[in-house]
Amino acid sequence: MRTTFDQASVRLYFLDDGGEGGSASTLFYGPLGEALEIAAQQPEEVQAGLYLATENDVVAFLDLTGG
After folding, report:
1. What is the mean pLDDT of each run of 10 residues along the chain (67 residues)?
2. pTM for this model (two decimals)
C-alpha cells in the first residue's frame, strides 16, 4: 500500500464473495488509523473479507496487518 500515513483517507469495505459474484459493503470512509481500529474490532470471519482502498491502492486488511 503506497499511502500509509495515519490520516490518509481510505474506504474500509467488506467483500462478500458468496452468491452471484458477491458484493462490497462499505463499513467506513475516513482516516486510515480509524479504519484500522474499526477493522480490528470485527470478528475473524469478517476480517478475512475486509479491504482498505486509497485513491491509488487496495489492500486486504489481513495482508496489511500480517494477520
Report:
1. 71 84 90 95 95 91 89
2. 0.85
